[in-house]
Amino acid sequence: MKVLIVGSGGREHAIAASVAKSAKVDKLYCAPGNAGIEQIAECVPIGAMEFEKLANFAKEKEIDLTIVGPDDPLVGGLVDVLKAAGLRVFGPDEKAAILEGSKAFSKDLMKKYHIPTAAYETFDDPKAALAYLETADMPIVLKADGLALGKGVLICQNLEEAKAGVKEIMEDKKFGDSGNKIVIEEFMTGREVSVLSFVDGKTIKIMSSAQDHKRAGDGDTGLNTGGMGTFSPSPFYTEEVDDYCKKYIYQATVDAMAAEGRPFQGIIFFGLMLTEKGPRVLEYNARFGDPEAQVVLPRMKNDMIEVVEACIDGTLDQIDLQFEENAAVCVILASDGYPVSYEKGFVIKGLERFENTDGYYCFHAGTKRNGNDIVTNGGRVLGVTATGDTLQKARANAYEAAKWVAFENKYMRSDIGKAIDEAGA
Ligand code: AMP
Ligand code: GLY
User: What pLDDT shows up at residue 423?
Assistant: First the structure.
């Protein structure tokens, strides 16, 4: 069959690598892709938000299945456009992708269906939000309602910071229209875990857990980023946590969406915080995590296409989702200065070493071809993933492989997976 993947990041490279392994796939396309994806798929210069062009391309090439990677096109309704054109597509439609697209929606859903999450209030009037803050406990969390490239969350230590935050989000529109509405939420503490799942509208199958490292600097300092590295599984995701989430969170979310007339087909990514009172949902995403996909997918035993087709056909209950008994660690190689400002266009050397080395992967995020060279083309440039029998071994392998690659201004965190040691895993 012919498969089209939409997107251009490390997540899409990981999806493409998984899909390319399927015996069912004869031809793989990616729009727009990057210099890494290009080695396993034919990349076409159509952006992820160019819905009509994507639909026309898919019809013209008689694509059998389209997989949409990023949040923007999902929340914007690409799946609806492709379905209306008679195409087969994996991912939530616009009605369901609101689970990620509106934090107010997802919080209200959790409240209505008793899914454990932080206490909150929603405001569309800055005056009311400011008045509420006067009596609220600090620290407190402010969240712009809509998509804000993962940056629309402010953790405020005191009233002054919180008031300034409301002004930034709602009046100065620092995150654009996503700040027309704001969620003000109780501050929680605990370890974070990312759990990805396949969903067919009614059945949910959980993938192996992962943990991201969102801050730019070692020791979780510096600005929030899209993610600087991941490991999987998370040793903190114990059987007890799994039981709790299965009982109160996963199926409850899928059932809630169905009950709201918004059946969800695709990937639900549960951002969980393991608090003293038990696991709580921090956020939902309607897609694979990036770089979570880069440690979870290399460990998946199933044929990706079989699982994706079961989601589309509503037969996910018949799939036995299985993961290797090993571990994986991904270290992001970024451009120094990310996430604020950084230079692009530096030649990347050493990539060939990954080509035939089992258990090592170099997923491209911000790269492009320039003549015979592959050059840096973004903040997050590459995701170097390695597997190992244990998390410690995987981490040692990933940091070893991170040295194989060289480019000017290369930056990485040196403590991805440090938490593993605390768990005594
Ligand atoms: P989100 O985009 O909602 O996942 O938020 C980004 C990050 O902000 C999360 O990964 C957490 O580290 C932090 N965060 C979000 N909500 C809360 C909360 N209620 N309490 C503490 N930290 C939070
Ligand atoms: N790594 C976090 C995310 O994909 O949203």
Answer: 78
Q: 212 has which bridge partners?
A: 230
pLDDT of amino acid 422:
83
Helix pair 251-259, 103-112: axis angle to 10 deg: 100
The residue whose CA has the least distance to atom 9 of ligand 1 is 282
Ligand 2 center–CA 150 separation, angstroms: 8
pTM of the entire structure?
Answer: 0.96
How many Å lie between the centroid of ligand 1 and the Cα of residue 187?
8
Place of tokens 């989430």: 245
Residue stretches of the chain with pLDDT short of 70: 150, 424-425
Between CA 49 and CA 369 the distance in angstroms is: 22
pLDDT tens-digit series, residues 301-327: 999 999 999 999 999 999 999 999 999
Q: How far is the CA of 26 from the centre of ligand 2 (A)?
A: 30
- Locate the ligand 1 atom nearest the alpha carbon of residue 118 and give its number: 19
Q: Ligand 1 — pocket residues by CB below 6 A?
A: 118, 141, 143, 150, 153, 155, 185-188, 192, 214, 271, 282-283
Q: Which H, E and C letters describe the chain, residue by residue?
A: CEEEEEECCHHHHHHHHHHHCCCCCCEEEEEECCCCHHHCCEECCCCCCCHHHHHHHHHHCCCCEEEECCHHHHHHCHHHHHHHCCCCEECCCHHHHHHHHCHHHHHHHHHHCCCCECCEEEECCHHHHHHHHHHCCCCEEEEECCCCCCCCEEEECCHHHHHHHHHHHHHCCCCHHHHCCEEEEECCCCEEEEEEEEEECCCEEECCCEEECCEEECCCEEEECCCCEEEECCCCCCHHHHHHHHHHHHHHHHHHHHHCCCCCEEEEEEEEEEECCEEEEEEEECCCCCCCHHHHHHHECCCHHHHHHHHHHCCHHHCCCCECCCEEEEEEEEECCCCCCCCCCCECECHHHHCCCCCEEEEECCEEEECCEEEECCCEEEEEEEEECCHHHHHHHHHHHHCCCECCCEECCCCCCCHHHHHCC
* CB-defined site of ligand 2, < 6 Å: 150, 212, 227, 285, 289-290, 292
How many residues make up the chain in this entry? 425
pLDDT at res. 209: 98
- Residue 357 is predicted with a pLDDT of 87
